[in-house]
Amino acid sequence: xxxxxxxxxxxxxxxxxxxxxxxxxxxxxxxxxxxxxxxxxxxxxxxxxxxxxxxxxxxxxxxxxxxxxxxxxxxxxxxxxxxxxxxxxxxxxxxxxxxxxxxxxxxxxxxxxxxxxxxxxxxxxxxxxxxxxxxxxxxxxxxxxxxxxxxxxxxxxxxxxxxxxxxxxxxxxxxxxxxxxxxx
Length: 184
Fold this sequence. Notes:
The chain is an all-alpha fold and 184 residues long. 74% of the residues lie in helices and 0% in strands. It is built from nine helices and no strands. The chain has helices spanning 10-26, 33-40, 44-50, 54-77, 83-104, 110-132, 143-158, 161-164, 168-183. Residues 1-7 have low confidence and may be disordered.
């Protein structure tokens, strides 16, 4: 018998959202399809109507994770007309995101943590590239390269033990100086 077409929304999204919550609370390996469906209030057969496997569901969870973060960052950063605006906006949301990730980090295998971090940086590179188009940039490198240098450099800085000891004003000044060095 042929499978029915899978519609988006509804139970599919509920399964995805529930799986995301459980994966982050319990870890991928410790979360079973049965646990997810018990939380959703559905049968195992319903799961397999929407997803062929737990791995397929996990791929959807990761995709949604990046989509949610991407939309949040894009909405907040799209208003940044100047580098100073970017620094004022970016630092608090990135640090809040790091704090949220820290709450779930213990439940996720290190390989998945690295993949999520790398995916977040790739997503941010596109957003920052679009924002940089508004700035007066003297560097002749392509915007994609400059955006990557900014995001990966800022990320490394934010994860530095020395940086975390700085005051909020010192952090903003440090990031703004870095942006100016890369872009000018």
